[in-house]
Amino acid sequence: MNIRTETGADYEKVHTLLTRAFPGQEEAILVQRLRADNSFQQELSIVAEENGKITGHIMFSQAALWEGGHAHSVVALAPLAVLPEFQRQGIGGKLIEEGKRRCRSLGYPLVFLFGHPSYYPRYGFVQARNYGMEMTQFTVSDEVFMVAELQEGALHSLHGEFRFHPAFEELG
């Protein structure tokens, strides 16, 4: 398996993957909107490829953690998708780990997500509200609002209200 940065030549294949992995078009539309934004970082859109076939995709986007009128630059993980016939083979985990490594190297202190509480903790994600993080942009339970530390000590030194990129709000 090859884990690499997504290229423009992959966009159609990733779109197909997203529509197969998720019901509806929301994730595919979200990825298109994030790619079109000036803040898009190509190296944070990553694919898994086997024998020329795109089997998985993950995207990280710029986000903010607001604390006392100051915004800390953080990232959000969304979406993560693996073709149904390739799930439960470790592809998602490899994409998460590579994405976290890249985000860390770019200096981001934290990565946030909404995700399954039995899946993401194995990759270092913990309930965000337990660490003084809040979410008002969307209504979400404590169990699925998660954060992982990318820079040592960030979970204890940063607190505030997490906000996804505005492209997430447009999904309505």
Could you name the key traits of this structure?
172 residues; alpha+beta; 24% helix; globular
DSSP strand count: 9
Shape summary: globular
Q: Quickly count the helices.
A: 4
Strand content: 25-35%
How much helicity do the residues have? 10-25%
Distance between the termini: 36 Å
Please give the radius of gyration in angstroms.
Answer: 15 Å
Largest sheet: 9 strands, mixed
Element-by-element helix/strand order: EHHEEEHEEEEHE
User: Low-confidence parts, pLDDT < 50 over ≥5 residues?
Assistant: none
| Mean of residue pLDDT values | 96
Structural class: alpha+beta
What would your notes on this structure say?
The chain starts with a strand and ends in a 9-residue tail after the last strand. It has 172 residues and is of the alpha+beta class. Strands 1, 2, 3, 4, 5, 6, 7, 8 and 9 form a nine-stranded mixed beta sheet that branches. It has four helices and nine strands.
